């Protein structure tokens, strides 16, 4: 009897998830697996929303954002009752291995699932936050950064035309990777990130010094998880210290998750999806499938979720040096 592999997407969607699903399906079938999709993530697993995936099921999806399998956040999966229901569903459909595509919550859910089910479990890092240890970059991160970069490039034109400061809030949960990389690429004057928090007063002082050096417009990139205030709080403080019309807020929000994935995300997703199937052939389980220094790697899920991944400090220094 053919081995059965299930694949699902969980948590927030990320550009490149479809490319990862495609790679898992086609590599799996090529290796003799029967592949099933689980619709709507862990919630769909509990509800037994399985569908058979064929080579043609994943045709023409590598360039599409979102996920053809749908996704969700499932509180029930965090309970023993929900985990038992998910394990029962996997056993009822004779699943030998599960590949889950998602972020930190997905990985934590996979760890808990292993307490109730003895099949093989691997996780592909699909999140725009880039906050999972065990991989240099996560699937969807590059696209999210480029979407934000294009938006800021457009905002810069308006900022310079009207001599204004734009405060741009980007996504990233409680991680500053998005904000810092976007700020460097956009030539921003300041990035406010959780890993190196600054108060609104400290941030305003830096912008004032930039104006004193002759700058007439500025870009401030704020990570949504900045502990001293999100983009709105920063913008309101700046406006309270100066002429309100000099400051504008732009919250990019979920626009960073949508649209076609970049070439980099498509390639990363395809590499990791194919590698996951090959790792299953070697009985790998309980691992995050990532890419480190250009090589596909396996990292224990417990290590991936419990190790705090931080942006490199030299990048902060670089931003400060080039923002003069």
What does the model show?
- The structure is a single chain.
- The protein has helices at 17-30, 41-46, 80-92, 104-113, 141-162, 177-186, 200-212, 231-241, 263-281, 301-306, 313-322; strands spanning 4-9, 34-38, 50-53, 97-102, 120-125, 165-170, 190-192, 218-223, 247-251, 287-292, 295-300.
- The protein has 2 domains: 4-140 and 261-306, Rossmann fold (3-Layer(aba) Sandwich); 142-257, Rossmann fold (3-Layer(aba) Sandwich).
- The protein is 41% helix and 18% strand.
- The longest helix is centred in the middle third of the chain and has 22 residues, at 141-162.
How is the topology of this model organized?
Blueprint: E1 4-9, H1 17-30, E2 34-38, H2 41-46, E3 50-53, H3 80-92, E4 97-102, H4 104-113, E5 120-125, H5 141-162, E6 165-170, H6 177-186, E7 190-192, H7 200-212, E8 218-223, H8 231-241, E9 247-251, H9 263-281, E10 287-292, E11 295-300, H10 301-306, H11 313-322
Parallel strand pairs: 1-2, 1-4, 4-5, 5-10, 6-8, 6-9, 7-8
Antiparallel strand pairs: 2-3, 10-11
Helix pairs in contact: 1-9, 5-6, 6-11, 7-8
């Amino acid at each position: 009897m053919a081995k059965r592999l299930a694949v699902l997407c969980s948590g927030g969607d990320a550009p490149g998830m479809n490319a990862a699903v495609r790679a898992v399906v086609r590599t799996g079938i090529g290796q003799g697996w029967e592949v099933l999709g689980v619709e709507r993530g862990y919630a769909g697993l509990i509800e037994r929303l399985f569908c058979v995936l064929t080579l043609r099921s994943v045709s023409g999806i590598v360039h599409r954002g979102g996920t053809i399998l749908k996704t969700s956040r499932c509180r029930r999966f965090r309970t023993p009752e929900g985990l038992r229901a998910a394990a029962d569903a996997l056993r009822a459909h004779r699943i030998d291995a599960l590949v889950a595509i998602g972020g930190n919550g997905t990985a934590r859910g996979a760890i808990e699932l292993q307490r109730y089910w003895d099949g093989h479990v691997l996780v592909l890092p699909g999140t725009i936050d880039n906050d999972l240890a065990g991989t240099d970059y996560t699937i969807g991160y590059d696209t999210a950064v480029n979407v934000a970069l294009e938006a800021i490039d457009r905002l810069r034109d308006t900022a310079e035309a009207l001599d204004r400061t734009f405060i741009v809030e980007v996504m990233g949960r409680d991680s500053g990777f998005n904000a810092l990389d976007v700020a460097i690429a956009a030539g921003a004057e300041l990035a406010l990130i959780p890993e190196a928090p600054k108060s609104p007063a400290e941030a305003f002082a830096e912008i004032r010094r930039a104006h004193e050096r002759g700058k007439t417009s500025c870009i401030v990139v704020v990570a949504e998880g900045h502990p001293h205030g999100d983009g709105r709080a920063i913008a309101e403080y700046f406006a309270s210290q100066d002429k309100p019309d000099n400051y504008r807020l732009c919250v990019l929000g979920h626009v960073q998750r949508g649209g076609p994935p970049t070439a980099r995300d498509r390639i990363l997703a395809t590499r990791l999806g194919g590698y996951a199937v090959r790792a299953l052939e070697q009985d790998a389980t309980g691992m995050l499938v990532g890419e480190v220094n250009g090589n596909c790697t396996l990292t224990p899920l417990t290590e991936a979720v419990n190790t705090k991944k931080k942006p490199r400090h030299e990048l902060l220094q670089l931003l400060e040096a080039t923002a003069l």
